[in-house]
Specification:
By secondary structure, this protein is an all-beta fold. It is built from one helix and twelve strands, in the order βαβββββββββββ. Strands 3, 4, 5, 6, 7, 8, 9, 10, 11 and 12 form a ten-stranded antiparallel sheet that branches. A two-stranded antiparallel sheet has the order 1-2. The longest helix has 4 residues.
């Protein structure tokens, strides 16, 4: 209804090389969401988070989601298969491949061993999950994190992951 921050007084010259497709910023939102580990194939038998919490800010089509997730001693993989993802993003990632998002990790500890923890990630196109990747070998290739990379040893604060994802929505 024309309510929001109005940028129509700016000319294209003031904005730079791009062009303006909308002159009213009318979409701003903040909130919380709950991340969870999930296998893309056969589900993990039992998984309980010791701590999982996250926040997000959405400005127009751009979302920044940040959080922490870690498991407690209740973790049984069973026949879990596929890649391991963090699910529950607050908005569906854009359906255009070039607009999927990036993920950075600030702190990762207590995974199953060297090279088994997430080094890279992406907000997957047309989904509400973060794909987790690791360095596969000394030749700098990447591979998906899989459920068996999770630390299943008893105790709290396992598989601790602090992350930030930035992505576009449709």
């Amino acid at each position: 209804d024309g309510k929001g921050i109005d940028f129509s007084a700016n000319t294209d010259d003031e904005i730079g090389a791009g062009s303006v497709s909308a002159e009213i910023l009318d979409d701003y939102e903040e909130g919380t969401w709950t991340p969870a580990f999930e296998a893309s194939g056969t589900a993990i038998d039992t998984i309980t988070n010791d701590h999982a919490g996250a926040i997000y800010t959405k400005i127009g089509r751009f979302v920044t989601a940040a959080g922490i997730i870690q498991t407690d001693g209740t973790l049984t993989l069973g026949s879990a298969s596929g890649s391991l993802n963090i699910t529950g993003l607050p908005f569906t990632v854009a359906s255009t491949a070039g607009q999927r998002g990036t993920v950075s990790f600030g702190w990762i500890t207590a995974w199953s061993g060297d090279g088994s923890y997430p080094s890279y990630g992406f907000a997957d196109t047309n989904s509400t999950h973060i794909g987790l990747l690791k360095r596969a070998s000394s030749d700098d290739t990447t591979a998906s994190i899989v459920p068996s990379d999770l630390n299943v040893d008893g105790g709290q604060n396992r598989n601790s992951t602090v992350f930030t994802a930035s992505y576009m929505v449709d």
